Amino acid sequence: MDRKPIAIIPRAPRRAAPAVGRADDGPQMVSLYEAHQTIYPRSVTGFFSHWRWALVLLTQAVFYGLPWIEWGQRQAVLFDLGARRFYIFSLILYPQDFIYLTGILVVSALSLFLFTAVAGRLWCGYACPQTVYTEMFLWIERKIEGDRSARMRRDAGAWSLERAARKSTKHMIWLALALWTGFSFVGYFTPIRELGLEVLHSQLSSWEMFWTLFYGLATYGNAGFLREQVCKHMCPYARFQSAMFDKDTLIVGYDLQRGEPRGARSRTADPRALQLGACVDCSLCVQVCPTGIDIRNGLQYECIGCGACADICDRVMDKLGYARGLVKYSTQNAIEHAWTRVQMVRRVLRPRVLIYAGILVAVGLALLISLALRAPFKVDVVRDRGALARLVQDAVVENVYRLQIMNATEARQRYSISVSGLPGIAVDSDTSFVVESTQSRWVAVRVRLPLSGQDAGAHTIVFHVAADGASDRLAEKAAFLIPR
């Protein structure tokens, strides 16, 4: 039973009077909000429904299948937090490559702005995880409990053995799917085959168990129970979408001029003779809406742009012999001014769209070029704090450094180290080191410099690290100290 917010409104003081026959003078409970009404979306097939299910299959094939793909001797996509390495097919990223994650997030944000400005809430209606898993959970619910009318009738009736069996079966399948989703999610951070063996032997670590259960139960709760409430009350995107919408943005809209005045009629009736519009007021567009809105009331923030109302309305128009498109993907300007499709498309290339597209292309190209030119290894130089600078024999000053060489390839590599920046400076230790594939190694390097003719203080030197047999070469600056 839904809990409703209440306000306690005390009654005004009244004069004493006989208690017989009088109502209770205590506080009254007054509801401030309407109780939540359960939404039973009706199933529908059509152009937009087919696209939605195509995206469901595509996104879930990628999500569930990607962790099982092998790439060489490892998992193709793995975010190894313990080793601080991210594997994305042949690309290996270290924490120092955080800039690429920033670039990906910027590209994602700009893509969202661009797609929203052009065609509204495409992400919400077709690819958002909330929409995708809600569609999957609804499909399971329909297969077990029946379509909208059957579910409503069963839920309104008394509990029976059949109802309990159907509900239990549905929730067990929901839980199984949700836990498999949590397992797949953790499989991106722990090799999924190892994770599977840990599950079979009940050897999951505490964090693996936590995130499997957390992600699984979040999927179960959001897609099975909260559903449209996530889109309407929890997701911030619905609130700021108006900043990216204008009257030339493609949205799911109702043709008011053609549809009104609405009213029921027989299939053979002439709507012009009845002075009626094309809308027969069947309310099917409301019944199929996953958020329970009436698209005939105009653009609403709850609309996720899934197109279910357009699909069902086209079916009704087909049955009546009317033209399709009473509810359709269009723009506010196109509907108000009865524009053709060509006129509507011409308005797509407007200033905000061109700005979003230009920035997106520039950032995307910069990210791709940076990845293409990225060196296959990295070097960090750290001074040895135990011996900043010291004088050795023959009037020579020595500084000690620690170099971290990170091999970002999947082959064993040998690296050579040299130094420049001051006359006579040289490395007085091993200059060649081997680093195993996808590993990092700390090496100690002693650098010596004759004192003759050198000023005391800090001087800039450059370490050069090169991969043997390759043209890749990195240069890292450091400070060489000469004591007074």
Reconstruct the topology from this structure.
Elements: E1 6-9, E2 28-31, H1 47-65, E3 70-71, E4 74-75, E5 77-80, E6 85-88, E7 91-93, H2 98-119, H3 122-127, H4 129-145, H5 148-156, H6 161-186, H7 192-200, H8 206-226, H9 228-234, H10 237-240, E8 251-254, H11 256-259, H12 284-287, H13 308-320, E9 327-330, H14 332-337, H15 341-346, H16 351-372, E10 377-383, E11 390-392, E12 396-407, E13 413-420, E14 426-427, E15 432-435, E16 440-450, E17 457-467, E18 473-482
Antiparallel strand pairs: 1-2, 3-4, 5-6, 6-7, 8-9, 10-12, 11-12, 12-16, 13-15, 13-17, 14-16, 17-18
Strand content: 15-25%
Oligomer type:
single chain
Work out the helicity level: 40-55%
**Counted beta strands:** 18
Structural class assignment? alpha+beta
Mean pLDDT across residues: 89
Give Rg in angstroms: 33 Å
Total domain units: 2
Main sheet attributes: strand count, strand direction, barrel closure? 5 strands, antiparallel
- Total count of helical runs of at least 4 residues: 16
